[in-house]
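Technical annex, item 7. During the second reporting period the consortium partners agreed on a shared format for inverse folding records so that results from different sites could be compared directly. Each record opens with the tokenized structure and is followed by the designed sequence. A conforming record, contributed by the partner at site C, is shown below for reference.
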């Protein structure tokens, strides 16, 4: 398929055949050279800036978008031949007197120092295979993938599921799938995901007018807005009447299969927005905020200059505690104390078991308290472009609901569970997706390396279960066989604040929150926490939606 840049075609770069990639690179190089030569004479004029900060010559003929994409390929393509040739094309353009872009930011995450992430080109064979799969499917190796690859087993399942939802046979057309992704990500003002899917939506032939606002999209998609809103913020309010409205509205009605596809996409992108903010994912190099054509500033260390080797900012970010000074002794004590609590809880479990009444009381207490867990900080959330045009009712959110002291009803897993009910419903109406989701849930829940910070051979199942059940507890979901008293023993306040923020209002997550919990743990362990948050949140949303669909059907 041809890109919007006209004759510049990128699809050949996704091939696993080196000869096909080489031919595509030659074609791209020639097309860029032709465009550059039409701009080059103008470039001799003293440089002037357009209002958006781009050099005027680079902005002509769509050249700036092409150069930004080449910059991304030179840094992020898993195939060395593509990286090297992209860099050579950029150098050729620069030799014509045209300013080329340079990356902004410092690696795939604002929270994790770049030197602690996997560098493209230095990955092992397993990771390279995942990178190649991702690039072949999407035409890019995105920053989410570069952070998730801390956990290759999970990443493989995630990529397989996402590829199926977006690109394989299914009830919804391709442009509907990407538009629903935009609607879902926009609920949390996640401009990172919105930008990616705007590009994908246009690439598969979506109507640009729809991007001017939800009111410009077909009525059928507009009707999905209410479900999107409730799923993202208050899924316990979804009833079979909401489902009926979508399925019965004359010419704009959804089929059951289409609705299941849409619900899975909405929950996927709500939870992926949580991961994006929870791990501080940086803008993609070729997207807005990921590159600049401005010359590097001397006062800013020119940290992102392609050619320099200064890494001063990296050293600032390298501290595991960021702006929160804490002694290593204190952090080590934190880990030891947590391990001791796990040991004591296990001993208590073995000695006595609380009554069912006491277990129910502890759940209700934890659910009530979770509604009022909030950060005392008044920090700015990550700067985002206004994406509110992609959804309605911007004032609707989780926080407003809890402030009014309204009650979240209890959802008993014994009455409706993913394993016994949701899985089979999804698989029946959207074949194979139930299986893919089930694998992904199980990998996230069971994933362990038997380590905790500097300790090895540790059984972390108790801690993982506490995190998962705390998230479900915030959504009113109760497991009758779990003692919710364990949550307060294992999750301290700073950790609860982080979990609540990432799951319920991810756009408010800050680096300080990320730094302030589990201060002696590895970044890979904090990413692991985020995988639990992603999957527990997605399953919670799905349970409410699928229960409503089941009630409608019976």
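Designed sequence (site C submission):
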């Amino acid at each position: 398929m041809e890109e919007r840049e006209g004759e510049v075609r990128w699809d050949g770069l996704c091939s696993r055949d080196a000869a096909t990639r080489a031919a595509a690179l030659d074609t791209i190089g020639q097309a860029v050279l032709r465009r550059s030569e039409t701009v080059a004479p103008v470039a001799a004029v003293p440089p002037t800036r357009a209002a958006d900060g781009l050099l005027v010559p680079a902005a002509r003929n769509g050249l700036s978008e092409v150069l930004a994409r080449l910059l991304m390929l030179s840094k992020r393509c898993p195939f060395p031949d593509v990286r090297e040739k992209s860099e050579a094309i950029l150098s050729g353009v620069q030799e014509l007197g045209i300013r080329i872009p340079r990356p902004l930011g410092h690696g795939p995450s604002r929270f994790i120092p770049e030197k602690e992430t996997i560098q493209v080109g230095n990955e092992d064979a397993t990771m390279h295979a995942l990178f190649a799969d991702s690039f072949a499917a999407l035409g890019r190796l995105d920053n989410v993938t570069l952070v998730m690859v801390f956990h290759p087993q999970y990443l493989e399942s995630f990529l397989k599921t996402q590829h199926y939802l977006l690109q394989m046979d299914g009830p919804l057309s391709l442009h509907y799938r990407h538009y629903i992704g935009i609607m879902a990500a926009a609920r949390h003002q996640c401009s990172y995901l919105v930008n990616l899917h705007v590009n994908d939506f246009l690439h598969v032939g979506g109507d640009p007018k729809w991007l001017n606002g939800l009111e410009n999209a077909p009525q059928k998609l507009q009707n999905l807005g209410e479900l999107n809103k409730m799923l993202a913020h208050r899924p316990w309010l979804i009833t079979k009447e909401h489902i009926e409205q979508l399925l019965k509205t004359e010419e704009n009605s959804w089929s059951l299969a289409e609705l299941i596809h849409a619900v899975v996409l909405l929950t996927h992108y709500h939870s992926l927005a949580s991961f994006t903010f929870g791990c501080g994912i940086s803008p993609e190099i070729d997207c807005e905020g990921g590159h600049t054509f401005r010359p590097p500033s001397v006062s800013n260390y020119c940290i992102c200059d392609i050619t320099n080797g200064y890494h001063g900012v990296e050293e600032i970010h390298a501290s595991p505690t960021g702006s929160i000074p804490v002694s290593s002794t204190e952090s080590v004590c934190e880990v030891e104390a947590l391990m001791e609590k796990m040991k004591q809880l296990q001993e208590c479990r073995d000695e006595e078991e609380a009554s069912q009444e006491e277990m129910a009381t502890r759940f209700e207490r934890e659910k009530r308290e979770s509604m009022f867990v909030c950060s005392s900080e008044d920090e700015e959330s990550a700067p985002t472009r206004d994406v509110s045009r992609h959804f309605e009712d911007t004032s609707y959110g989780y926080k407003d609901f809890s402030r009014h002291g309204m009650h979240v009803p209890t959802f008993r897993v014994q009455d409706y569970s993913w394993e016994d009910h949701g899985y089979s419903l999804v698989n029946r109406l959207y074949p194979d997706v139930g299986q893919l989701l089930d694998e992904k849930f199980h990998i996230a829940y069971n994933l362990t390396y038997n380590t905790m910070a500097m300790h090895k051979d540790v059984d972390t199942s108790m801690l993982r279960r506490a995190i998962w059940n705390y998230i479900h507890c915030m959504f009113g979901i109760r497991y009758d066989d779990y003692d919710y008293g364990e949550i307060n023993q294992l999750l301290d306040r700073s950790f609860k604040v982080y979990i609540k923020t990432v799951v319920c209002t991810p756009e408010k997550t800050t680096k300080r929150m990320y730094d302030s919990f589990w201060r002696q743990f590895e970044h890979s362990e904090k990413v692991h926490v985020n995988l639990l948050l992603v999957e527990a949140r997605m399953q919670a949303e799905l349970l409410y939606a699928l229960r409503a669909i089941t009630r409608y059907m019976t």
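The mean pLDDT is 84. The two ends are 44 Å apart (CA to CA). All partners now use this format for quarterly exchanges.
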